[in-house]
Amino acid sequence: MLSHKAKYALKALLYLAKQDQNVVSKTTDIAEAANIPKKFLEQILLDLKRGHFVGSKQGKFGGYYLLKHVNEITLADIHRLFDGAIALLPCASLNFYERCSDCTDESECLLRHGLITIRDETLNAMKGITIASLVNK
After folding, report:
1. CA pair distance 137, 19, nearest whole angstrom
2. Other C-beta atoms within 10 Å of 47: how many?
3. What is the pLDDT at residue 101?
């Protein structure tokens, strides 16, 4: 399940994706159009900036803009940035792997093998959904 933070990040990215290429969008405009609380949005935009998805411009005419092309930002990227692992257990995770303390032989664990299959299919689906594909629907 996506957290509110990840959902709002996606809504903000969709708003930015719909703007003309050289437009810098104010936080208040994004918050109003995407129905996101402004204070929460500010935190989200900082996280997106740290993740190199958006850039910002300071000053009177400042705001936020996309750094990456809309075809390069996937649902998997945003999920990982805000919600962490896509896998259901740490032992099945690619980027957040941790061995299970109650497992005696990981290579023989049927649960782990099943969850790796689920992770792979979920990851492939999430990588196939880009900001561009959402905007174009």
Report:
1. 16
2. 16
3. 86
Q: In the chain, count of helices (H) and strands (E)? A: 6, 2
C-alpha to C-alpha distance for 123 and 77, rounded to whole angstroms = 10
8 A C-beta contact, residue 49 and residue 55: yes
pTM of the model: 0.89
Q: Where are the alpha helices (DSSP H) in the chain?
A: 4-17, 27-34, 38-50, 75-83, 110-127, 131-135
Q: What is the pLDDT of residues 49-77, one digit of tens each?
A: 999 999 999 988 889 999 999 999 999 99
CA 126, CA 137: separation in Å to the nearest integer? 16
Give the single-character DSSP code of 118.
H
- Decide: 128 and 116 in contact? Cβ < 8 Å: no
Q: What is the DSSP letter of 73?
A: -
Which residues, in sequence order, are bridge partners of residue 25? 64
**Nearest CA to 9 among 79, 86, 87?**
79
Euclidean distance between CA atoms 67 and 52, whole angstroms: 7
Q: Interior CA angle at 85 toward 79 and 91, to 5°?
A: 165
| Residue reference for tokens 């032989």 | 105
